[in-house]
Amino acid sequence: MKNKVKIRDFVLVLIASAICAIFSFLSSAFLDFQMSYIVSLFLFVLLLSVSFCIVSKSGFAILFSFVFALLTFGFGDLGITGFNKLITLVLFAAVFELMFFFFKIVTKKVSLSVVLASVISSALIPLMIGVLLSVNVLLSLVKNVLNLVLLSFLIGFIASLIALVVWYYTKTVKLFLKFQYFKR
Fold first, then answer.
1. For residues 81-103, b (16+ Cβ closer than 10 Å) or e, as one string?
2. pLDDT, tens digit, for every residue of 119-151?
3. Which of 42, 58, 61, 126 has the fewest C-beta atoms lying within 10 Å of its C-beta?
């Protein structure tokens, strides 16, 4: 019954999503748009990767992204752009989950699978946003979109590596061991 979803897994989703949402709001309030994107994507991938390593259950990334999208909805997001944010984050998580399982089968290494899944799904975010908003604009701004893809790729790589370092040094801490093996 290792794969049974427990209440503590949902609590972790809520806490990690809330932390990510708070820092996303703070970064958008105090930083310009580009730096806010960098900080928000970095924290999103970092917390998603660490939380995914802790819980290690399928569907967790999609739930994390969905809760994060709901927590970051503002009144300005009630239109079509807010719905696009929800779709983009859930698609990000779906790509993450699919890539994780694919690379887990191919490489048999969980840590490498998390990094590769994070990098690929992060790099696809600008493309997903571009396709959802306007394919014509996406095609007319190919150079700018490719720069965003490369930036997102780099952010995903750095964030996932830091997440794995954090997980490597904290996975034997008593608190995490109690979290993983607590029977209730």
1. ebebbbebbbbbbebbbebbeeb
2. 999 888 888 877 877 778 777 888 888 898 899
3. 58
Report the CATH number that the domain containing residue 107 is assigned in CATH. Answer: 1.10.1760
**Signed CA dihedral, 96, 88, 47, 120: sign only:** positive
Domain assignment of residue 133, given as a range: 7-181
What does the chain come to in residues?
Answer: 184
Is 1 inside a domain boundary? no
The model carries a pTM of: 0.83
| In-domain check, residue 175 | yes
Closest CA to 15 of 73, 55, 59: 55
Supply the pLDDT for residue 158: 94
Q: What is the CA radius of gyration of the chain?
A: 17
Model confidence at 78, pLDDT cuts 50, 70, 90, reads very low
Query: Does residue 105 fall inside a structural domain?
Result: yes
Residue 91 lies in a domain: yes
Cα atoms found within 13 Å of the Cα of residue 127, Cβ hemisphere only: 13
Domain count for the chain: 1
